[in-house]
Amino acid sequence: MSEHKVVLAELSEATLDAAAHLAAVSHPAAGATVGFSGVVRDHDHGRTVLELEYVAHPSAAEIIAEIAAEIAALEHVEAVAVSHRVGLLGVGDIALAAAVSTAHRAEAYEACSQLVEEVKARVPIWKRQRFAEGDEEWVACP
């Protein structure tokens, strides 16, 4: 059995690099690497989005690390990398980058999907959308 590892788990104000996340999870025992990029799109519910702002609770980085460790501990997982961007993002920017390596493709797809879903469900990050009409709204905000 190989050592499971988290190679990256962070919040970042810097531009995220999806290819770097995939490269980070490269492992000699891995036959599959799967990555995900959550990208800022130019619309939401029929409205034109100009930019997003992500704001994180002080516990967010710790929770991302916990989730990454949980995924890394799954059977067959070799390595995990995940980052969520905070601050102001434009259309086309990556807000969430994730990558997982495993021995086989089915496990890689499943683990990466679980990683993304857990980050979206558990990490306290709120999104402000600014629309072309000049107004804005907060999403996933308590």
Describe the sheet with the most strands.
5 strands, antiparallel
CATH topology: Aldehyde Oxidoreductase, domain 3
Helicity, in percent? Answer: 25-40%
The outline comes out as elongated
What count of structural domains? Answer: 1
Look at the helices and sheets and give the structural class: alpha+beta
Low-confidence stretches: none
Rg measurement, Å: 16 Å
Could you say what the CATH architecture is? Alpha-Beta Complex
Strand content: 35-45%
The count of DSSP E runs of length 2 or more, i.e. the number of strands, is 9
CATH superfamily: Molybdopterin biosynthesis MoaE subunit
Distance between the termini: 42 Å
- Mean pLDDT across residues: 95
What's the CATH class label? Alpha Beta
Number of helices: 3
Question: How would you spell out the order of helices and strands?
Answer: EHEEEHEEEHEE
Outline of this structure?
This protein has 3 helices and 9 strands.
SSE map:
Elements: E1 5-12, H1 18-24, E2 32-39, E3 43-44, E4 47-56, H2 60-72, E5 77-85, E6 87-90, E7 94-102, H3 105-122, E8 125-131, E9 136-139
Parallel strand pairs: 1-5
Antiparallel strand pairs: 2-7, 3-4, 4-6, 4-8, 5-7, 8-9
Overall description:
The chain is α+β, with helices and mostly antiparallel strands. The chain has a single domain (5-139), classed as Aldehyde Oxidoreductase, domain 3 (Alpha-Beta Complex). Helices cover 27% and strands 43% of the residues. It has helices spanning 18-24, 60-72, 105-122, and strands at residues 5-12, 32-39, 43-44, 47-56, 77-85, 87-90, 94-102, 125-131, 136-139. Helix 2 runs antiparallel to helix 3. The mean pLDDT is 95.
